[in-house]
Batch of 2 targets.
Target 1
Amino acid sequence: MVEYDAVIVGAGILGLSTVYHIKKRHPNKEILVIDKLNAAGQAATAKSAAAFRCLFSSKTNFLLADSSAEFYRYVQEDLNVDLKMRWVGYLWLFNEENYEKTLPVLRDLYKKGFTYEEYNSDELAEKLGIRTNFVDDEEAQLMGLGNAYKGIFIPKAGLIDVDLLVKFYESEFLRLGGKIQYVTKAESVVVEPGEPLEIPGEPYFWQDANVVGVNTNKGTIKAKKTMIVGGAWSSQLLDSLGVECHIKPKKRQIFSVKANTDALGKLLFTKGFNDVGCLPFTILPNPSVLIRPVLEENAFWLGYADEFPRAFKLEEDSQPEENFYQYGIYQVLVKYFPQFFGCHPFSAFAGLYAINTLDSQPVIFEENRLMVVGGASGSGIMKADAIGRIAAALYSGDEYAVLHGGKAIKVSDLGLKNRLVEPEKLII
Amino acid sequence: MVEYDAVIVGAGILGLSTVYHIKKRHPNKEILVIDKLNAAGQAATAKSAAAFRCLFSSKTNFLLADSSAEFYRYVQEDLNVDLKMRWVGYLWLFNEENYEKTLPVLRDLYKKGFTYEEYNSDELAEKLGIRTNFVDDEEAQLMGLGNAYKGIFIPKAGLIDVDLLVKFYESEFLRLGGKIQYVTKAESVVVEPGEPLEIPGEPYFWQDANVVGVNTNKGTIKAKKTMIVGGAWSSQLLDSLGVECHIKPKKRQIFSVKANTDALGKLLFTKGFNDVGCLPFTILPNPSVLIRPVLEENAFWLGYADEFPRAFKLEEDSQPEENFYQYGIYQVLVKYFPQFFGCHPFSAFAGLYAINTLDSQPVIFEENRLMVVGGASGSGIMKADAIGRIAAALYSGDEYAVLHGGKAIKVSDLGLKNRLVEPEKLII
């Protein structure tokens, strides 16, 4: 039987970035990626809101997101691979309370050279045509909606085409000689004793035991290193080995609404924020419903990351819920943006966040010849390049990973044993 | 419909200790315990190794275990409720390396007034009839067995009858007017909006949402407070609400071997360690197989807490695995204790540890009117009284819980948001 140097379970954005960086550093290693679906990035990766931002308060977040965005910019501008990156910026609306809480963090970041622009409620009302104050609106108060007291515009942020990004990593990995096998589902992980003694049921606890590959619907694949990069599905494989990755699945939904009225067309192409001449990626005050402009579709994507009591639940084919739009998102949205009155989504999709319930940051660790990469908690696209480089550094046995742009991060910072990640103060 | 003040899911040792302490402090509250089985403490509680120790390096562990053991002593000696507590002590065998690592911790504890006794390998060989050195045993070396270089005897430790302890808490709770309903399975948790608006599918994310009870096979039970104390099963109910409790299930097995030879009878009634005149609860060096004397059954219970690749897996009726004894425990045991040569278990049982994968300490927290108590990670019996008091303090809104003996612990130390538990250096 062929033994690969490494087999990677999962051809999502994190799996592909990881193998691209490993293969680039180790061109002679035989690397195989498997995925249960029939093409790359078809699961949660395809269901992303496809946005990125570089402004974070946590050093970890900043390093991962900023270096990844700069790498994507390099791919697009220097390698001339169109990723449809658009620097439309993030516009973040705050009520009084959250603005007061956020201000010290922003000022601190400003001193470090991060730029942002501030808008007051009158400016927001004028530029966006939104309602900013609900003091006379009993219904809005019952709903607990926050006033749009201030808007913070972050220019270093924007949109990206995830499918093009996936294809970049996939094609580069293949060009370097990597192999991908689709429609191949990892059903279990193979564990063998270091020194097999042919005892039934081995390894026993007094034996060394290592992961040596995966059993799939197409047979067993052996490898010197096995990597689980299965997004929300990783914990299922890892639980069967008693390996805790702290990743839980949560459904996230996006609803697409056409800008098919004059008012919505004007909103989509709001001027004055960015060079693209469109609405930034916008986050409402409270609850923080998000609005992503989709220029190619003349549409807006609308979403909300709901917490309690949204279940941690794996499902093969997550479906968006009509009521979640109708009674959830729409009710909030239309209070701020009357332009959306009467709007129905023309399409919708849902995917699974792979939430790291420790600290919402990625985990990248190895034990018993098994590597685990995941738990990006909804920031997988915007951090994928850095995560891939850190995973490649772990694979290579390096203490530090060098990210695009030259900054370094300690590999063990994102591991489990000596984990060291700064909590994020700028939370959307 | 009746609304209880509190409904508690799970009549295991932690659930019963919790409701006993709540009811004692709030005699007028209507408290209902439900359990899917037909009596108290029949799941993992009944499958415990039924031992306790008070010597821990972590302040948290010490507070929980010492105060609980002192309470059980009080119940037995002052309340004259026989719990069959026997202070047989723990005898902990170390190889050279682990002894060197443990020595500074022990010396530090000694300075604080904790007593222990140390035995060298010759003394161990003489007292126990064990082999202490495997330098000439190729097979033992292949198995990675550690020499019995030193033995540390901890006197403040011993055995307890878990069923009697369960019955104590159950009967006291009932005597105080508490209610228990068996054969009642919590199938889901009921969530309702703070202010119902009769919208289909509410609560939506812009509404306040709270837990108001549980749906069971016997109908819905409403309560002002709902507590999940379901051991390894807790995460199943909590996952459906997106509430992370960091608890995972892992099967643990115990095999019972009769002391039916002269050599084993002599070993069971080893003199010189304790007043009972029996073998202490003994832990082998590496792997740390455990031997629990069971005087009433003229037997030894044998166990081992295996890690990788033992799965995190829920199962209704965990079964012990013959091979785990035959090729696992027995092979290790007989190398140290030739007295066990040829021994087969006459009975065996298996249960689920509720492992807290954060730090192996209990979690006691509340959110959205839902309380969670669990994750004792195999130390539930020996810490049950303290855990119940802390849970009762949380229920009462206290900042500190006063444990038996008068020491206090901050309730939030065992919560999730401001968790503060010292890592344990004395790990078995």
Target 2
Amino acid sequence: MATARDRSHAIAAPRKPRADGQKSRDAILRTAAGLVTVEGITGLSIGRLADAVGMSKSGLYAHFGSKEELQLATVDTACRIYDDVVVLPALGEATGRARLEALAERFLMHVQESVFPGGCFFASVAAEIDTQPGPVRDSAMAASAQWFEHLASAIQSAQAEGEIDPAEDAVQLAFEVNAYLLMANAQFVAGDAGALDRARRALKRKLESVARP
Amino acid sequence: MATARDRSHAIAAPRKPRADGQKSRDAILRTAAGLVTVEGITGLSIGRLADAVGMSKSGLYAHFGSKEELQLATVDTACRIYDDVVVLPALGEATGRARLEALAERFLMHVQESVFPGGCFFASVAAEIDTQPGPVRDSAMAASAQWFEHLASAIQSAQAEGEIDPAEDAVQLAFEVNAYLLMANAQFVAGDAGALDRARRALKRKLESVARP
């Protein structure tokens, strides 16, 4: 199996490093987002990131004035990557059920393809700083809440469209679907690639059991 | 809501500190296990723990020769606490189905009662060091695998006893049950107490759907 570090090219920016050794803010933040899923966000300092991107600390201070500013910008970048890869394409599907299935499948694919080398960025950050109040935690938690909202909203649409039993509690069902996805993420990152198919089977079984009677 | 730190008394050893300011190895490790679920295991150094328990670093070096030795002893202590509170009482139930339900309910109760102030010790550590090879990761992952084995084994017993459809894939079902539990843990620690009841409902629905036909 490739190590996490081997796979960290997955979200590297496509452009080459500039000749003068400087990297764009976007390229730096993409490196930071990947690093966070392997080393944690608490350890993401300007010094650590300077090492990782091969820039001077003073060069990075020109981009980010403080560690917290860097952490917040990294969460924003992770949100953008996640939206581009997982959320926005799925929301383009025509029906609620298709949106739900696409959200789930794209989540699993982004884990499988190591878009972030340590798996889901938000699960990783939430587990690390869920008990540490502050703007970085709030920002990561807001992103997780928005994801949950996308799942629940797709379920409600599917109920209105007759694909899911309207008697189902949409929040309860979103909880169960999200549980499969995050369990698969945790087990995949721990080395069990079969977890992704277990989540796919769990979702299929669940959708069969909540089909309109 | 009480902060994580306010609740960290939950696994403090019941005895009073000794008059000479020294604490027993067990009391130190219980403090360490709680601290890990809030601050992470990577940051658990002899210096950090010395601050937390109010002892000198040299006093702690007498107990633990290195940071890694301390981390491994902390994982062992967390396993003992978890076995005492969750696993062993549940395994005393007479049937597979009762064992499965007791494992799940005791897991949820240990989250609800903040046995560890930052929620499930093993979920917390796994999320933090799943991509960092070494004996500490291996030890925590072995504990998670053993927990999964307890769930699957209770399901297999329930199948043999006619309480769960023998056509069910026990590993698939254990995956789904564990997913509900860990999702509830993550959401509870993030401040959503209703997540525990969502996991209870999910488990009830699931057991109804896999009952022997």
